[in-house]
Please model this.
Amino acid sequence: MTQSKKAFYYRPKTNQHTSPTVRWMFLVFGWLFFALGIIGILLPVMPTAPFILLAAGCWARSSRRFHFWLINHRYFGSFVRDWENNHAVPLYAKWLATIMMAISTTMLFFNIPADMIWVAWLVGAVCTGVAVYLFRLPNA
Model:
């Protein structure tokens, strides 16, 4: 194989826990969060990125193999690496998340009963806080 055809693999920074029980717990939670992230791809009301990042964090503490697989994944790898190295989020992801939160909150205002409108305002406040937090992070 020529030099230009070799694949580049990012070496993960892992911090595996010393207790086997805790490592198994992190491994199981990693798979749970990864499954929720995959479901989030299919369901517009469920986020994908936070669950994938939680899976990466769990696997970094439990399984070098799965953590290595995730950070070198074709679709999720660059996102996870940017977060692990710089706590950075791509600008398009910030805008997409903000727009989706705005649409969801607006739909909530129109579909919730009048006596429960406080829930819509609470969701709107939380979404605003998340959007402010996102845009304060560096761009990937």
Summary: The radius of gyration is 18 Å. Residues 1-6 have pLDDT under 50 and may be disordered. Residues 20-42 form the longest helix (23 residues).
